[in-house]
Write a structure and sequence with these properties.
The complex is a heterodimer of chains A (403) and B (309).
Chain A: H1 2-16, H2 19-40, E1 49-55, H3 60-68, H4 74-77, E2 78-83, H5 85-93, E3 99-103, H6 107-112, E4 117-123, H7 129-152, H8 155-161, H9 167-182, E5 193-199, H10 209-230, H11 232-239, H12 241-246, H13 252-281, H14 289-312, H15 317-334, H16 346-352, H17 356-369, H18 374-402
Helix pairs in contact in A: 1-13, 2-10, 2-13, 7-9, 10-13, 10-14, 10-15, 10-17, 13-14, 14-15, 14-17, 14-18
Chain B: E1 2-11, E2 14-24, E3 29-33, H1 40-48, E4 55-60, E5 63-64, H2 69-74, E6 76-79, H3 91-101, H4 108-119, H5 135-147, E7 153-157, H6 165-180, E8 184-188, H7 192-198, E9 201-206, E10 209-215, H8 216-221, E11 227-234, H9 237-244, E12 251-255, E13 259-264, H10 267-280, E14 284-291, H11 295-303
Parallel strand pairs in B: 3-8, 3-9, 6-7, 7-8
Antiparallel strand pairs in B: 1-2, 1-4, 4-5, 9-10, 11-13, 11-14, 12-13
Helix pairs in contact in B: 3-4, 5-6, 9-10
Classes of the chains: A alpha/beta (403), B alpha/beta (309).
Chain lengths: 403, 309
């Protein structure tokens, strides 16, 4: 126990004496959080969405609907694009817009004739805020249309049928509006223009860009940290300190255990910076900061054991470095630590989720999203502990031979 | 106390140590000499626990190094030939770590670190990273790490290789002081003068075996007061051997095209006869060295080669 403490202190002191490596370890998550937030924007930025308008009526009234979304502050948030229904649906299936509004043919005529007519609003389930804004805005417009119908009464069909209204007609309409304005009891009737809401096929829960990228980047950082520390065993071998240790009552297992403990302390700092940055800087909702942080620490320690096992089985320090990089880079690329799974083709993402880091990222995202809980954490931690123990023993056996 | 009994270490077909036995007592400096590949390092490795013996036993203060490893190693201090230090840590931090490895605790550890830093003359540089030290300073710190826990058995594997004369004198004084304090010291070196000046008893190893052992006086007696005559030049080995047979009491230790090593009593008086005989055999002598009976001449007599080979 005494040696374990001395060894942890020695490892931490050595890490402190190498400020560049320490800064790299701690800086990786922080730099990534800042870069991704700057590139993709944090949670404070105004969201921008796209509303596709499939106007099959092509009348003044149908075009007036567009005007409802063209006023400030909506105009800052929603860009309107005109399209046809088929193309609009295709683009919605791709998740290319926040919503598609289909205005059917005969919309204006039905409005003026006070006949029931239905518009269709198709929303993107991968987004939450913008489709809701569009839906609410449209509801207000529909309600407004209903009131206009109530107020306009029989005058509206006349407006629709004939040539441009005369001054008398306009005056009559004004008087009618005034009269009907006093009669609120009529407003309780249901609107004649209905709004049918359709949601496209199920898609993953909503995530912002930072939520997609940051876990990937954090795990890439863990892999690099683990690889850098794994190579340090070779330094000890070259310095002869491993040989000297064998001639003392202390055990090599304690030396390796101390390395794991000191690395876990560094990983805790890295994880706190990473998860804290995600939550408070990039404004990614983190359901459980503690579980997410602990998961990062456990994953980092497991990666270290995996990589140190590979490193000590190499023929020398240089070979260990080359092999370590040959393992880390493909794992990063395939295991969702470089390109997130969300950006990969489905077949590649399916394979990538079976890699150690791919599995760990998937679980981490679940802890962040709140879809995994303490029980899932304990099961995952037990799996990692079992694999880690095996790797620990393999590493220890090999170090004894290296000495 | 170190007890080595019929120690054998084999690496596959290669037998590095072949039935070595010796014992070193508390307060004694026991020298282990031998050329490269003689089996010294393997013997030291088996004693320190670095290697597992293929056969035989090694006991340190009565504890078998294989069966009672931790107990045996608790009494052991090792100063390896290669400097074994953390270059990025300071001298004080290195000592604190190795003290921890020996199970030492504060305040004893703190006090002892001060003592050994003072002993090795590193007190004023204790906080500096080791990588800034000179070779001699690193050697002294390497030694300090070995004696930090006041071991009862101290293994020194060529501790003065590459050390400046000043540091060497200081290190040898430290070794003597350890022995005077009752530590059993096992010392290997290439430097014969060092071994002669330092060791109470010696064992000479070659081809994995101890070929001679005893005190310096006992070993010198094996030479029977014979001098060592070393001749360099151009020789015909067979003709030179034949020529030397005509000179009384000459023993040919080595004869090749460029070197002739002879062991003979009263060599200075016989030099003219030796030169004349060699000239008659067509040899051309270019250099002559006459050495009084010494450990080195014994070593050459026993092994047929110089220690540095």
């Amino acid at each position: 126990m005494r040696f374990l403490f001395a060894s942890v202190r020695k490892d931490l002191e050595r890490m402190r004496r190498d400020p560049l490596a320490l800064a790299t370890s701690l800086g990786i998550p922080l730099v990534l959080v800042v870069i991704i937030t700057l590139v993709f924007g944090g949670g404070q930025a105004t969201p921008q969405g796209r509303l596709l308008m499939a106007d099959e009526d092509g009348t003044v009234l149908s075009q007036a609907l567009t005007a409802a979304f063209s006023r400030e502050p909506l105009a800052k948030m929603i860009v309107i694009e005109t399209t046809d229904q088929k193309e609009g649906r295709r683009r919605m299936d791709r998740g290319d817009a926040s919503a598609l509004l289909i205005v059917p043919k005969g919309f204006q005529e039905a409005f003026f004739q006070s006949r029931p007519i239905q518009m269709q609003l198709v929303t993107n389930p991968a987004q939450e805020i913008l489709p809701n804004i569009i839906q609410e805005t449209l509801s207000i417009v529909v309600d407004g249309g209903f009131y206009v119908q109530r107020l306009g009464g029989p005058l509206l069909p006349a407006l629709a049928a004939g040539p441009p209204p005369s001054d008398d007609t306009v005056a009559q309409i004004s008087i009618a509006f005034s009269r009907y304005g006093r009669s609120l009891s009529k407003y309780i009737n249901p609107p004649l223009i209905g709004l049918e809401l359709q949601v496209t096929a199920e898609k993953p829960a909503s995530q912002n860009i930072a939520a997609i990228f940051l876990p990937a980047m954090l795990f890439m950082g863990l892999l690099f940290i683990g690889n850098a520390h794994a190579l340090d065993i070779w330094k000890e071998q070259l310095w002869g300190t491993l040989r000297r240790l064998v001639s003392t009552p202390a055990s090599l297992a304690a030396l390796l255990g101390a390395r794991l403990i000191s690395l876990a302390l560094i990983l805790t700092a890295v994880a706190l910076v990473g998860v804290g940055g995600m939550r408070w800087f990039a404004h990614v909702p983190v359901a459980s900061v503690s579980l997410a942080t602990l998961w990062l620490v456990l994953s980092g320690a497991a990666f270290y054991l995996f990589l140190v096992t590979i490193a000590v089985h190499a023929s020398g320090q240089r070979a260990a470095s080359v092999i370590g990089n040959l393992v880390v880079f493909p794992l990063s690329l395939l295991g969702g630590s470089f390109f997130p799974f969300e950006m990969m083709p489905d077949w590649m993402a399916s394979i990538g989720r079976f890699t150690p880091n791919g599995w760990a990222i998937t679980e981490f995202k679940a802890f962040v999203a709140g879809s995994a809980h303490t029980k899932d954490f304990l099961i995952g931690a037990a799996c990692m502990a079992a694999a880690g123990s095996l790797l620990f023993l393999l590493t220890l056996r090999r170090i004894r031979k290296l000495v | 106390m170190i007890e080595v009994e019929q120690l054998r270490k084999a690496y596959g077909e290669l037998i590095a140590v072949d039935g070595v036995s010796f014992a070193a007592r508390p307060g004694e400096i026991f020298g282990l000499l031998g050329p490269n590949g003689a089996g010294k390092t393997s013997t030291i490795g088996c004693i320190s626990g670095l290697l597992t013996p293929s056969a035989g036993h090694v006991k340190l203060m009565g504890h078998d190094v294989v069966r009672e490893g931790p107990a045996a190693r608790a009494n052991l201090g090792v100063v390896p030939q290669e400097i074994a230090l953390y270059e990025d840590l300071s001298a004080h931090e290195n000592l604190a770590y190795w003290g921890g490895a020996q199970g030492m605790r504060n305040p004893k550890l703190r006090d002892r670190i001060q003592q050994v830093l003072e002993l090795t003359g590193l007190l004023d540089r204790a906080k500096e990273p080791v990588k800034q030290f000179s070779g001699g300073m690193k050697r002294r710190l390497n030694f300090a790490c070995g004696i930090l826990h006041s071991p009862k058995v101290l293994l020194l594997d060529e501790p003065t290789v590459g050390v400046d004369p000043q540091s060497r004198v200081r290190l040898l004084d430290l070794v003597r002081s350890q022995a005077q304090a009752g530590t059993c010291v096992l010392y290997t070196t290439h430097y014969m003068q060092e071994a002669e000046a330092l060791c109470d008893r010696l064992a000479i190893m070659d081809h994995g075996k101890v070929i001679a052992a005893g005190t310096l006086i006992e070993l010198r007696a094996m030479l029977a007061e014979r001098d060592l005559l070393r001749l360099t030049g151009v020789f015909a080995p067979q003709a030179a051997r034949a020529a030397m047979q005509h000179i009384d009491s000459v023993e040919i230790l080595q004869a090749d095209e460029s070197l002739l090593l002879l062991s003979l009593p009263g060599a200075s008086a016989k030099l003219p006869a030796v030169f004349a005989a060699l000239a008659g055999a067509g040899a051309e002598v270019r250099g002559t060295t006459l050495t009084q009976p010494s450990l080195e001449s014994l070593f050459i007599k026993l092994t047929g080669k110089e220690l540095r080979e």
